[in-house]
Amino acid sequence: MAKLYHFPLSPFCRKVRLCLAEKRIECELVEERYWEQDTDFLRRNPGAKVPVLRLDGKTMAESGAIIEYLEEVYPDPPLLPRTPDERYEARRLAAWFDDKFHHEVTSKLLYERVNKKVMGLGYPDSKNVKAGAQKIKYHLDYMAWLLDQRRWLAGDTMSIADFAAAAHLSALDYISDVDWNRHAVVKDWYAKIKSRPAFRSILADQIPGFPQPAHYSDLDF
Amino acid sequence: MAKLYHFPLSPFCRKVRLCLAEKRIECELVEERYWEQDTDFLRRNPGAKVPVLRLDGKTMAESGAIIEYLEEVYPDPPLLPRTPDERYEARRLAAWFDDKFHHEVTSKLLYERVNKKVMGLGYPDSKNVKAGAQKIKYHLDYMAWLLDQRRWLAGDTMSIADFAAAAHLSALDYISDVDWNRHAVVKDWYAKIKSRPAFRSILADQIPGFPQPAHYSDLDF
Ligand SMILES: N[C@@H](CCC(=O)N[C@@H](CS)C(=O)NCC(=O)O)C(=O)O
Ligand SMILES: N[C@@H](CCC(=O)N[C@@H](CS)C(=O)NCC(=O)O)C(=O)O
User: Any idea where the GST N-terminal domain is (chains A, B) (predicted)?
Assistant: First the structure.
């Protein structure tokens, strides 16, 4: 069976978990405390990052490269649209979340509030937390603007753009940092993706020291 | 004609320039002072980053998504290998450079020494410069280890992995921050890619305030 070395709240790991589950690739989850950099882990991935996926006799790192591989080898169901234009848009938005949103929001809220504590790096820097709380509004507005014109973030079909976005937002939702009331259209989108079977494992995550809030796994949040 | 809004030393822009040139897509270069965030620029890319490519009546951002698009619509010559395994490896290594190398090296050396001055943000932070100078050694060692077993970084064919790596290293070479004598095999690889016609425009770049060093454009460096 496939094995995913991951950390529960890592958005990159969550994105891969969602893609694996949508494609019904069964996968054992192994929690990896990547910041401890143990030698087995470094042997699996010299990049020293999670996710690391063991599949088809290969050990793979880099979530974007992993997902393109899955898409080529396990094309059903597809997680990229059909035309080059639409595929471009899905990839652009996945990168938007994994680069820009990650830098401006996830690293400022989740990493300050949770990762620092878990890794024993001290207290959140309130300047960062404030900056992240400010920036997430602008990203939710951008999503609302997209979703006013489209069923899913990148167009009429669900794609890696939705999984990347949902991976970051679900991790932030675990610490109640997403204001779902800001835009009905964004809340509807999240309700839709949250109710997919592929989301179940993510809704079951529990982080020691951070009790899951009630709304987190509630489909009527 | 296509138009690329870029900044000369940006590794993400250089990667796209190399891919466009290999595919012989003629392209006008427009220098974009992206940190000034003028409104036309923000209209073209709400992400406010370069590169931004105007091609086929579309305006595109995110270098990775742009390159996958080019690969699908202008497949000749291919910049990704043929099998899913090899394609995975090329994408993984491109991401290695654009994520890990960028974070550990490019942002610590190039952004400290050049971008800060160009943007009027003051002097390099010597702690960062030292950290970058230390880390680049480890990355050159990793490249040497790969190139001991392969003709190109990701395998037997030149790929986006080589262009991503060459984009970062060429920008660092402009400020003489690459020790080409560390590994003959890395130097040979760079000599090979540097002598390609696609590299010419990059070797002609000039940054006001930072005179081009003699070895930079020399094919016998
Ligand atoms: N580009 C990588 C990023 C993965 C990543 O940054 N993972 C974080 C956890 S969320 C990590 O392992 N960080 C450790 C490090 O950066 O050394 C991917 O897409 O897989
Ligand atoms: N993920 C983007 C990264 C591009 C990027 O970071 N570009 C830099 C210049 S090297 C930039 O525009 N930075 C401005 C910013 O981050 O706001 C890509 O691959 O195109």
Answer: 1-78
